Amino acid sequence: MTGIHLLLAIALISCTSQLFVDANSWWSLAMNPIQRPEMYIIGAQPLCSQLAGLSQGQRKLCQLYQDHMVYIGEGAKTGIKECQFQFRQRRWNCSTVDNTSVFGRVMQISSRETAFTYAVSAAGVVNAISRACREGELSTCGCSRAARPKDLPRDWLWGGCGDNVDYGYRFAKEFVDAREREKNYPKGSEEHARTLMNLQNNEAGRQVRSHFTPAQLPLLLRTRLVIIRGKDLGEGRGGGFN
């Protein structure tokens, strides 16, 4: 996805009023260099305890999968760069304000921009983890043994070792969604609606990366919008983020 003009096929926006959300985020992993896990004793916690922005569940996953954290940071960085490219001519262009909250208070507003940021960041993690599996950088996965892609040119050789998107999707879902799933807001509340919106935006980004190759992503010109009106979910069509 790096260097590709990503146009998400699915995104969600919220029309609810401004809601409070955590200022810190796992996106901060993109802003702070992460040392390789070999710098630490296996099973030790210094790496995870020093990373800002992780929820309790994400910190536990960090302790179990320390070698993944570098690539989560890379995925977050890819998402931020893609966001900055897509909104480069807008008033808000995904500019970062600090190393902890990354985007600052703008993420407290339910908006198109917020929706895109959640989705593209989740897609970035799927991409980075999938590639790391293929390159043998992670101990818990290897390259994908999927069949030769149908759209691969006939004169190209297929080595049979591609991005492990299935693993990338599963791990990204577990890690990225952890913060939202730890919240326990009353059903029907605006906070609960916002949590559901964030989860669905995360899923939107993962689905796009899982079902389309990076080369195909620029061809996705339409966006499916699910708009939250108060407590009800309704569907509408949008013309994308242009």
From TrEMBL:
InterPro entries: Wnt
Domain of life: Eukaryota
Keyword Transmembrane: no
GO terms of molecular function: cytokine activity; frizzled binding
Signal peptide positions (record): 1-23
Localization (cell): Secreted, Extracellular space, Extracellular matrix
Family: Belongs to the Wnt family.
Protein name (record): Protein Wnt
Known function: Ligand for members of the frizzled family of seven transmembrane receptors.
Organism: Acipenser ruthenus
Gene Ontology cellular-component annotations: extracellular space
Gene Ontology biological process terms from the UniProt entry: canonical Wnt signaling pathway; cell fate commitment; neuron differentiation
Keywords for the protein's UniProt record, in alphabetical order: Developmental protein, Disulfide bond, Extracellular matrix, Glycoprotein, Lipoprotein, Secreted, Signal, Wnt signaling pathway
SMART domains: WNT1
